Amino acid sequence: MKKITLLLSILLLLSACSNVSEEETQYEIYKTMYQNILNTTSFSTSSNYFDISATLTRLDGGEYRYDVFVDNAKIAMYDIEILAIVDEGLLMISNQMMPSVGIYGSEEYAMIPYQVNAELGYVQGFNLNGVTNDTNATIKVQVTWKDYFKIRSYKENFAIEVSV
Cα–Cα distances in Å, from 147 out to 22, 84, 101, 111? Predict the structure, then answer.
């Protein structure tokens, strides 16, 4: 009986120590992706696997809205995660949340050529947007995904110049 009590106590202690909330885990993924973008020295402007583009639009009040479009998959992409940041030359994570897909929440997204089914999470593409005060901006984007079997992971980093 002592052994069972001791074993249950140890299991309870271990489970209490590893009690990390899902939000904390998701925020850690966000920070890791953000830091990966900041640490990247070589960026692409296009992909062989999907289309990516960005626009900048003037808003009332002197601000500008940027839109990043990731769509038209050329291969099957699963568990997609995307983070777009406006690079202002800072080497630290901004206190403002940047637009993201697939990091927060429990939804999983996939882009499969010629297949769209929102109920199953198969989308044609994504539009990430945010606001900046600059008329010229560099938007840095990291897109990660997995293959059909969810074994092999892929990551691409992009730098897109936009201006009004």
Answer: 24, 22, 18, 11
Alpha-carbon separation of residue 61 from 3, 54, 58, 65, 163 (angstroms): 69, 21, 9, 11, 17
Q: CB of 156 within 8 A of CB of 142?
A: yes
Region of residue 114 (left: phi > 0; alpha: psi -120 to 50; beta: else): left
Count the residues in the chain.
164
pLDDT, tens only, 106-119: 899 999 999 999 89
The beta-carbon contacts of 148-151 under 8 Å, at least 24 apart in sequence, are 148/76, 148/78, 150/78, 150/79
Query: How would you label 104-116 residue by residue, b for 16+ Cβ within 10 Å and e otherwise?
Result: eeeeebbbbeeee
In contact, 115 and 122? CB cutoff 8 Å:
yes
**Contact (CB, 8 A) for 45 and 160:** yes
- For residue 132, give both structure tokens: 């900046």
Instruction: Tell me the sheet residues that pair with 58.
Output: 64
- The C-alpha atoms of residue 40 and residue 144 are separated, in whole angstroms, by 14
Question: How confident is the model at residue 95, as a pLDDT?
Answer: 83
Distance CA 107, CA 14 (A): 29
